[in-house]
Specification:
Helices cover 60% and strands 8% of the residues. The protein has 12 helices and 5 strands. Helix 6 links the parallel strand 4 and strand 5.
Length: 351
């Protein structure tokens, strides 16, 4: 009598399971696989949704950026300052918020400490734009064009905070923070995929090691090797490490709270909205009003302000950025601790 072999677990599921088209995949993995229809549709819907949000947010924010209440200093006589303000407001209403300074030295000090990105200063019968090149060429060029239009003749630019030699476009801090956020997101996703029930203490230890290594890596590459991040080595490592920690813990909370849709939700919140509102490409004053508030609270924005302030503006915004990153980390860890407590209490009740 011929022997009839019993079908494997994956085969018993018949048309509802994916076939082993790649030899060597363990049977338990195949058995846990989704049905063909779900396996075909879910990746399409998820990737399309994330891509749509990414394109929509970034194009909305940067396709035609215009200033909204951007700070601009003025150091001139009352009549000259009023005339310049009126001309700028006529050209672009609500584009600028003006700050008067009693002297050119006061205006220069404000620019050097990132209180305003630039200031119009009267020198005899001419106006000069004292600007911080660390704001980026696009920002300075836009301010120079606006000042030229308001004054009626070309306005010279005096750069009092030039960019570092390794950061000629002023975008290094954005790319560094984007990479750290991406790494933190991927770390959290892989951590929960490999060990979804890992105790919080063990997960925290793993996250600390990851964050510390990330901070040192960014400092070695961005500061020591490329001279693109002019802040001190220890400062770059600390800020990047805290950003990695905040991102990883935030992604972990979203994965826990949102369940199956946690990964796309975390990618939208942290990778898309977080990086788009960081201020690394253009100052937050160029963001649309519906996006601008996020630049005050998101971890990438805190890290960008801290790194840029520490590198160019006499450590302006450094303390605030570190405190915000620490608050994100501690808050997310507290939420994870509460979730673990509730899960531990539910298990005996279920048993």
């Amino acid at each position: 009598m011929p022997t009839v072999s019993r079908p494997e677990n994956g085969e018993r599921r018949g048309r509802h399971a994916l076939l082993d088209t790649e030899p060597g995949i363990p049977t338990p993995v195949l058995a846990a696989g989704a049905g063909i229809r779900k396996a075909m549709l879910v990746p399409v819907v998820t990737a399309l949704a994330i891509g749509t949000v990414f394109v929509a947010v970034y194009l909305a924010a940067f396709h035609a950026p215009t200033a909204h209440h951007q700070p601009l200093g003025i150091a001139a006589s009352e009549q000259t300052a009023a005339r310049a303000e009126l001309a700028l407001n006529d050209t672009a209403p609500d584009a600028y918020t003006f700050h008067r300074y009693p002297s050119a030295d006061a205006a220069r000090d404000a620019v050097a400490h990132d209180q305003v990105p630039a200031a119009l200063v009267a020198r005899g019968h001419d106006m000069v734009l004292i600007a911080a090149g660390a704001q980026g060429p696009s920002t300075v060029a836009g301010l120079q064009a606006a000042a030229t239009s308001a004054v009626g003749h070309p306005v010279a630019v005096e750069d009092v905070v030039p960019l570092a030699s390794g950061d000629t476009r002023g975008l290094s801090v954005f790319y560094a923070s984007f990479g750290v956020v991406l790494a933190g997101f991927l770390f959290s996703v892989s951590s929960y995929q490999i060990a979804p029930r890992l105790p919080l203490a063990a997960r925290l230890a793993s996250t600390v090691v990851f964050a510390a290594a990330t901070g040192v890596m960014v400092a070695l590459i961005g500061h020591a090797a490329l001279h693109a991040l002019p802040a001190a080595f220890a400062t770059v490592a600390l800020v990047a490490g805290l950003l990695a920690m905040a991102t990883a813990t935030a992604a972990g909370v979203l994965l826990r709270v949102c369940g199956p849709i946690g990964m796309p939700v975390a990618s939208v919140v942290l990778l898309i909205f977080g990086n788009a509102t960081s201020g690394g490409i253009l100052p937050p004053s160029f963001l649309p009003p519906w996006l601008a508030p996020l630049s005050q609270i998101m971890p990438p924005a805190a890290a960008v302000r801290a790194l840029r302030g520490a590198g160019y503006y006499h450590s302006a915004h450094l303390t605030g950025g570190l405190l915000l990153l620490a608050a994100w980390t501690l808050g997310c860890l507290a939420v994870q601790y509460v979730l673990d407590l509730r899960a531990a209490r539910r298990e005996p009740a279920a048993a």
